[in-house]
Specification:
The chain is built from 16 helices and 14 strands. The protein is an alpha+beta fold.
């Protein structure tokens, strides 16, 4: 019979448990250090625990245009709604898609529910307005160099984005400085100049609006002075001022608005009445122009929109800067202000220093104003901070009761083995807590009440894995084996059972996460996360610790309180069968 090869460990051997323990301890230390380094030492709480308003929106398309509800348009809508919510002065609002056609908006406490529903429940408002004048919102540094000033755009035969650097700054006819007095003079000159719009007091459709505010050329000095003061006092660095600058303004009103230039600095504008709105845009998309080697945005207008756009651009093309520009205004904020040199109609092109992302984003914004996409409010849930605290306290109490019952059961039934189970539960709890704290700033994970329920259920799943392994070890001892061989022989059988059980739990959590929306996904996510951590803890902590403790006298000799006493377990004596003595073959010995 061939001798076994040296250095080869038989199946079910003890291996090196120290390596596995070192690996999981290093991971725990690294994750804990990352948690403290990030500054987020507690999990992010959901609306139902921290208090606030949660709104669920469902996208709806007009008949025959169901393909309008797609990933691109949903992401664009998320960006628009997020900007609206931030305009309410909210710094920690969450806006995210769930499923194919749902958007979840979670707004922390401190925001009025009526304002929140008004901001997120209406379709985006997109208008094309002529620029009367503009000014930088920031105070410039002393003696600014030309490189620190954003160049204004020019165009030839198309609309050019503000980032295109073809014109010279000294050619502008109305570029006010940042001082209040100079801004006031520039505003007065712009308001006194003839409006470039063909219908100064009309709406976007060209029809007079009797309720509209009179235009600058027709307003009395008092109204002009009020607009001057509003423009001069506007600070676009303040999100609340940006949001309130033209709140409740009508398309026919002359407004003040804010927008960023090509180098990311805020600028403020005085804009004339809207001549074209988003519904007049048939399609817009960011494309790469291979001939010029640059990203551009192509726009196509509807039949009525082409007439409106041709009419306004023919007027703008005869003006001097900045009154030859039209501003693309989305929800009261200027997203682009290209200039015009020639009259444009059905098709227009916006070109400039676009990147792929900025061109595609602007194309999506322009298209969004024309999409037959609206949102239906499915549910609005408002939770006070006090109620959220009560729910969190109740959830923690439920978790503590469940954990206490598990501990009592383990101590009574498994005695010394309960120490291993408790250490494993502690390791699993540390990993769960740290990962949840890190997932808050990383992916926006918020711990809500269903997620707390998932964590409580996970206590039973984790304890079940220990019980499976302990019972396998006890079965081996009942068969007459000593503890150290029993620990290793029981592991392959227990491992298969644990993996199958955890796979079923993880599969159920994954299916639940995919087919549900809202808070139920929090339960599914937490259940799936803790199930994965159960596998990690059992393989890298529970098994190595069991192997090390089996080498101690207390467990190895089967102390009565170890939970592995052979007599108490009813082990079969003897522990090993004696070999039969072979009969003598020599007749003399017989």
């Amino acid at each position: 019979m061939a001798a076994p090869k040296k250095g080869r460990r038989p199946a079910g051997g003890q291996g090196r448990p120290g390596r596995a323990l070192a690996l999981i301890l290093i991971a725990m230390v690294a994750l804990t250090g990352g948690m403290f380094w990030s500054g987020h030492t507690t999990p992010r709480l959901g609306i139902d625990l921290a208090g606030g308003t949660s709104i669920t929106l469902k996208a709806e398309a007009e008949p025959g245009k169901e393909d309008a509800v797609n990933e691109t348009n949903m992401n664009t809508a998320v960006g628009i709604i997020e900007r609206r919510v931030n305009g309410l002065g909210v710094s920690e609002a969450e806006v995210q898609t769930q499923g194919r056609e749902n958007i979840i908006v979670n707004i922390p406490k401190g925001v009025d529910e009526k304002d929140a529903r008004e901001q997120v429940g209406t379709t985006a408002q997109l208008y094309f307005r002529p620029v009367l004048t503009y000014a930088p919102s920031e105070q410039p540094a002393p003696n600014p160099s030309p490189s620190t000033t954003a160049p204004k755009p020019t165009a030839s035969g198309s609309a050019a984005d503000k980032g295109k650097d073809e014109g010279k700054k000294d050619e502008k006819t109305a570029t006010p400085s940042s001082s209040a007095s100079t801004q006031g003079r520039a505003v007065s000159e712009a308001l006194k100049a003839p409006s470039p719009t063909p219908t100064p007091s009309g709406s976007a459709s060209g029809k007079p609006d009797p309720a509209a505010t009179p235009q600058p050329s027709q307003t009395p000095d008092a109204a002009t002075s009020a607009l001057e003061k509003k423009f001069t006092a506007l600070n676009c660095l303040d999100a609340k001022q940006r949001s309130a600058a033209n709140k409740n303004a009508k398309p026919a009103d002359t407004i003040v608005a804010c927008g960023k230039n090509s180098i990311g600095q805020w600028e403020k504008y005085i804009l004339g009445p809207a001549e074209v709105d988003g519904k007049d845009v048939d399609e817009a998309q960011g494309v790469f122009d291979q001939q010029r080697g640059m990203w551009i945005v192509n726009m196509e207008f509807t039949d009525s929109g082409s007439k409106k756009f041709q009419k306004i651009t023919s007027k703008l093309s005869t003006q001097q800067e900045p009154q030859n520009q039209f501003a693309i205004v989305l929800d009261g904020e200027v997203v682009s202000a290209p200039s015009v040199r020639t009259a444009l109609s059905a098709n227009a092109e916006i070109s400039g220093s676009f990147t792929q992302k900025s061109a595609q984003d602007l194309g999506n914004i322009l298209s969004y104003g024309a999409l037959p996409l609206s949102f239906d409010t499915q549910s609005v849930t408002t939770v006070t901070a006090a109620l959220g605290g009560e729910q969190l306290e109740a959830g923690l109490i439920a978790g503590a009761i469940g954990l206490a019952l598990v501990v009592i059961y383990l101590v009574v039934y498994y005695r010394g083995l309960s120490l291993i189970a408790l250490l494993s539960l502690l390791a699993s709890a540390i990993l769960t807590y740290v990962i949840m704290a890190l997932l808050g700033p990383a992916i926006g994970f918020a711990l809500n009440l269903p997620a707390v329920c998932g964590a409580i259920v996970a206590i039973g799943i984790t304890a079940d894995s220990f019980i499976v392994y302990f019972e396998r070890i006890r079965d081996e001892i009942r068969e007459g084996r000593s503890l150290r061989p029993a620990v290793e022989r029981a592991w392959p059988r227990a491992r298969r059972t644990i993996l199958v059980s955890d796979f079923v739990s993880f599969l159920a959590a994954a299916v639940l996460f995919l087919v549900t929306v809202g808070k139920v996904q929090g339960f599914a996510f937490t259940l799936g996360l803790t199930t994965l951590l159960d596998v990690v803890v059992v393989f890298l902590f529970t098994k190595p610790v069991m192997t090390l403790l089996a080498r101690t006298k207390f467990f190895g000799e089967g102390h009565a309180w170890s939970g592995l006493d052979p007599k108490r377990l009813g082990a079969k004596p003897p522990l090993r069968r004696s070999r039969r003595v072979s009969a003598p073959t020599d007749p003399k010995e017989a």
